[in-house]
Amino acid sequence: MHASDDNVHLSITDLTPEAAWSTDLTTSDHEWLRSIASLEPEQFLLSEHLAQQSASAVDAPEPILDRDLHGWRAGRYIGEIHHQGRTLRIRPRLGIDTIAQWLSTIHNVQILPDTAGRSQGSRSLIIQLAAAMWRAIVAKAGTHSLAREKVTRRSRGLQIKGKLDMASTSRLRATGRPELVSTMTHRTLVTATNAAVVAADRVLYAQMGNPRWRGQRISEQLTTLRQAVGNNPRLPSKAQLKRARYTPITVKWRDAAELSHRIASNQLLNQNTRDASTYGVLIDVAELWERFVLHCAAQATAENVIHGTKATAGQHLLRSELDPGAGLGRLYPDIMIGPIADHSACSALIDAKYKPLTDPRGVDREDLYQVHAYSQSFRPQMSLLAYPLVHERSARAEKLSPWTSTAGSRLDFLRLPTNEQDCIAALSSWLQSSEAQSVDRAARW
Predict the structure, then answer these.
(1) What is the pLDDT of residues 385-433, one digit of tens each?
(2) What are the residues whose beta carbons fall under 8 Å from the beta carbon of 222, sequence distance 6 or more?
(3) 79's torsion region: left (phi>0), alpha (psi -120 to 50) or beta?
(4) pLDDT in tens, 131-150
(5) What is the spatial distance between Cα 430 and Cα 413, in angstroms, rounded to a whole number?
(6) What angle do CA 60, 61, 65 make, to 5 degrees?
(7) Is the CB of residue 233 less than 8 Å from the CB of residue 199?
(8) Which ranges of 271-403 would DSSP assign to H, the alpha helix?
């Protein structure tokens, strides 16, 4: 088996077929991969929006591995899975530097060169990515404030401390006691959120070679949090994190707490065990590509750009004639540009696809149906399936773009550059060409 060290049983790249693995699989290998394919990826997934995903996921997650007539193929995740005493490593096909650049672009936080993910051991790749993601989301959460919570303390005595509790004092006086009941409210950093963040930092700090990997601002904030919750706080339960309350200013700490809890409780990041238990870390690269394209689209146009999620915008594929409020087939496009107030129409729609766009595979049938359904429900002037540009020949769908549906909607299939400036330029050019075509069509009429 191809492996970089003794801990890794098989090292492959995402979205890569078995024929390119450069290894011959035995019967036991096939059984092992089949058991990995049956695992639920959510239990290993590190994501910046774990809280939202658990509350608003509309589709079943894609499997870690899939198998068809051509053999095994890795999915949209990168990372490591330790299962039955063996380890599977899935590397990004576009390179770790590209993934680090996406993280930097998405959060406008420069990833230090030392944390760009140079492989120096079996777990270095995923540790570097986990640290980069954690650093970015904590920096974003701590931009304006730390995660403080209101705590109310009740006291009873002959003096008022804070605000007099009239009802409790009246009940106490009715029993013949002379004391007063009062309450005092203050904000504290001793919270489950901060305990989770400090616990995750402790795990990552032990794994990182560069002592300055956090950056100065986060290091200063961590010093303040450790003074409140201690250097080695007990990791709070998921239930405790769910009970945490946030203000509009501190609500970004919810995602930081969820990600921190996943990191602090993960066996792969905590220890280098070699037993038969199952543990691991996965990162959804397709999610990163979607957010990268979203960022570049916002920079490419002066129009309003919306990330299509359950919390922002969506439409139904079908509506009931008996009950107009009832619908079937909920649709959440990745990116909408220039939508009107009720999100029922937009000037442009983009759906980001991390998979390759090459022949003979071309455009997957389900993706073609999906973008066509989007064009019917949101009525954009043009729609785009956006794939990452790699050094491969373009597919027929891209060469002959734009396309027109039977309903008159314009559909494009393009590969976008994987660096920020070139991606922005490509999207700007696409939007301008579409606008020019619309003006030309209006002039002919």
Answers:
(1) 999 998 778 889 999 989 988 777 889 999 999 999 999 999 999 998 8
(2) 197, 198, 201, 214
(3) left
(4) 888 988 898 899 889 999 88
(5) 11
(6) 130
(7) yes
(8) 285-300, 365-378, 396-399
One-letter identity of residue 94: L
Q: CB of 260 within 8 A of CB of 141?
A: no
The amino acid at residue 24 is D
**Among candidates 356, 386, 362, which has minimal Cα distance to 374?**
386
Using DSSP's 3-state secondary structure scheme, residue 439 falls into helix
In the structure encoding, which two tokens stand for residue 236, read together? 């709070």
41-79 residues labelled b (16+ CB within 10 A) or e (exposed): beebbbbbbbbbbeeeeeeebebbbeeeeeebbbbbbbb
At 119, give phi and psi (nearest 5°): -75, 120
* C-alpha to C-alpha distance for 435 and 438, rounded to whole angstroms: 5
- The size of the chain, in residues, is 445
pLDDT beyond 90 at 435: no
- Over the chain, what is the mean pLDDT? 82
Opening angle at CA 439, ends 438 and 444, nearest 5: 100
d(CA 99, CA 416) in angstroms, rounded, equals: 15
Tokens of 19: 């024929």
The Cα–Cα gap between 432 and 395 comes to 23
Q: What is the pLDDT of residues 205-250, one digit of tens each?
A: 888 877 788 888 999 999 999 999 999 999 999 999 999 989 899 9
Please give the model's pTM, rounded to 2 decimal places.
Answer: 0.79
Distance CA 201, CA 142 (A): 14
Residue type, 420: E
Contacts of 281 (CB under 8 A, 6+ apart): 44, 46, 79, 80, 126, 130, 266, 268, 269
- Note whether 135 and 213 are within 8 A (CB): yes
